[in-house]
């Protein structure tokens, strides 16, 4: 039963995560945190791991959550679930509806969906930042964390340096490693 | 002889599986990293898909749900080897992440017991928020600035923050469905306004009834352009189909796909015609 539930939940997430890996994060938060499977901060730890290992975030998260809930079979069910909707949709498009996405009505719906996705991702980022900076007290009470602010400033500086001097964006792995080193340094004091 | 061709087909599928496993193993940092890998492997090195097909593929992957890596693996796999090609490519691209993450999931909790690691992860959480926020800002910047899209994005942002502040939960799945509804409403409203402006008031009544037909027209146009791209490369049969306007589309597309289905086998063991 647990397996079937994992499979179905991740099917649902896979079917609506338009626009790449980040768009599934709000959905995963909804499903996983509200069910008490993982706490907000456990989920964030894991997103950090998913970002620094190869493969799509969606697949990494599904595997991890499946495994933490129901072992290797759970991981398998969750991963199969998250992949299946994309697989079927792309197969249908490639095989039958080559022009489905060029249809203007479909494009109209996608215009609205894109707006929602961007809003969701921005809100998820802002709210995470607020929690990390200001709500670090017991059970989310107000408490300002200057260390988090220092780390965020360092990451912003690093991004700027990459843009200006190396003419490319800093890879997520570089940023995560920087933050890990700074975190180990600052939070150990 | 049949056995022979089954063997080469299997070999092609295995190759597809292996290549996508390699791609899955080296895509750090999300789907976009894999685009250059796919380009090099399948367009430049093996010429299994053409550049316009590749652009098509990215557009399709971006406007369908699911990770870009999975979507493009399924698409490229299907183009090259039909259903089984799609399956091999998709499973191949997922396996490396699955194995790596499964192993990590076994140890992460113990690993986090270490004080230094827990401290490092507090830093990593900041990086995660930073990455998500910059991805969101980047997406907003690159978004087509249609009034509907911007309005929805801002509204959804406000709603989500309010929900967070008051610790309410509302599934984002519904928000996405609402977004699709808003997009559709804006599209049809736009059409009606356009018609009225053109002074074709009489056409308005027919518009509702005909919208299906009109869209069929667009689909047809799209088909033709897709076909043009294919005609460049597919031999005689596609030309014959090209003359039938819309009806023959499916057949010609299928022809092209069948031709491509044999591609892996071709590269492996000379030309199929000899068999």
Quickly describe the structure:
The complex is a heterodimer of chains A (189) and B (275). By secondary structure, chain A is mainly α.
What secondary-structure arrangement, pairings included, does this model have?
The complex is a heterodimer of chains A (189) and B (275).
Chain A: H1 2-16, H2 24-34, H3 40-52, H4 57-95, H5 104-134, H6 146-166, H7 172-188
Chain B: H1 2-26, H2 32-45, H3 51-63, H4 68-113, H5 115-142, H6 147-165, H7 172-197, H8 201-231, H9 236-243, H10 249-261, H11 263-268
Helix pairs in contact in B: 1-2, 1-4, 3-4, 4-10, 6-7, 8-10, 9-10
Give a verbal description of the structure.
Chain A is built from seven helices and no strands. Chain A has 189 residues and is mainly α. In chain A, helix 1 (2-16) packs antiparallel against helix 2, helix 3 (40-52) crosses helix 4 (57-95) and helix 6 (146-166) runs antiparallel to helix 7 (172-188). The longest helix of chain A has 39 residues, at 57-95. Chain A is globular. The N and C termini of chain A lie far apart (46 Å). The model of chain A has no long low-confidence stretch (mean pLDDT 85). Chain B has 275 residues and is an all-alpha fold. Chain B is built from eleven helices and no strands. Chain B has helices at residues 2-26, 32-45, 51-63, 68-113, 115-142, 147-165, 172-197, 201-231, 236-243, 249-261, 263-268. The longest helix of chain B has 46 residues, at 68-113. The relative contact order of chain B is 0.09. At the A-B interface, helix 1, helix 2, helix 3, helix 4 and helix 5 of A face helix 1, helix 3, helix 4, helix 5 and helix 6 of B.
């Amino acid at each position: 039963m647990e397996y079937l539930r994992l499979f179905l939940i991740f099917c649902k997430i896979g079917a609506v995560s338009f626009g790449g890996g980040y768009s599934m994060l709000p959905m995963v938060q909804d499903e996983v945190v509200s069910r008490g499977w993982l706490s907000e901060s456990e989920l964030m730890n894991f997103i950090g791991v998913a970002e620094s290992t190869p493969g799509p975030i969606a697949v990494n998260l599904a595997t991890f959550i499946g495994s933490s809930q129901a072992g290797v079979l759970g991981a398998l069910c969750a991963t199969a679930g998250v992949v299946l909707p994309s697989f079927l949709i792309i197969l249908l498009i490639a095989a039958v509806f080559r022009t489905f996405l060029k249809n203007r009505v479909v494009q109209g719906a996608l215009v609205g969906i894109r707006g929602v996705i961007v809003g969701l991702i921005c809100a998820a980022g802002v709210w995470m930042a607020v929690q990390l900076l200001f709500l670090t007290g017991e059970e989310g009470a107000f408490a300002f964390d200057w260390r988090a602010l220092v780390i965020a400033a360092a990451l912003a500086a690093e991004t700027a340096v990459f843009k200006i001097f190396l003419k490319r964006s800093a890879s997520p792995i570089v940023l995560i490693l920087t933050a890990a080193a700074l975190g180990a340094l600052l939070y150990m004091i | 002889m049949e056995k022979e061709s089954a063997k080469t087909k299997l070999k092609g599928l295995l190759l597809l599986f292996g290549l996508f496993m390699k791609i899955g193993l080296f895509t750090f940092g999300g789907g976009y990293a894999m685009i250059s890998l796919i380009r090099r492997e399948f367009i430049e090195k093996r010429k299994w898909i053409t550049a316009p097909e590749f652009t098509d593929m990215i557009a399709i992957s971006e406007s369908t749900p699911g990770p870009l890596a999975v979507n493009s693996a399924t698409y490229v796999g299907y183009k090259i080897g039909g259903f089984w090609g799609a399956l091999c490519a998709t499973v191949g691209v997922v396996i490396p992440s699955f194995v790596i993450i499964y192993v990590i999931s076994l140890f992460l909790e113990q690993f986090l017991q270490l004080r230094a690691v827990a401290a490092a992860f507090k830093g990593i959480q900041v990086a995660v928020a930073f990455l998500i926020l910059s991805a969101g800002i980047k997406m907003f910047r690159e978004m087509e600035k249609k009034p509907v899209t911007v309005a929805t994005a801002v509204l959804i942002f406000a709603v989500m923050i309010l929900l967070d502040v008051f610790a309410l939960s509302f599934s984002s799945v519904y928000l996405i469905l609402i977004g699709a509804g808003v997009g559709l409403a804006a599209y049809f409203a736009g059409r009606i306004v356009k018609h009225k402006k053109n002074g074709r008031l009489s056409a308005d009544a027919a518009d509702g009834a005909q919208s299906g037909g009109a869209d069929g027209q667009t689909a047809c146009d799209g088909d033709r352009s897709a076909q043009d791209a294919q005609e460049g490369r597919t031999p005689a049969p596609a030309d014959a189909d090209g003359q039938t306007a819309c009806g023959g589309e499916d057949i010609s597309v299928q022809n092209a796909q069948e031709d491509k289905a044999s591609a892996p086998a071709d590269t492996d063991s000379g030309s199929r015609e000899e068999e």
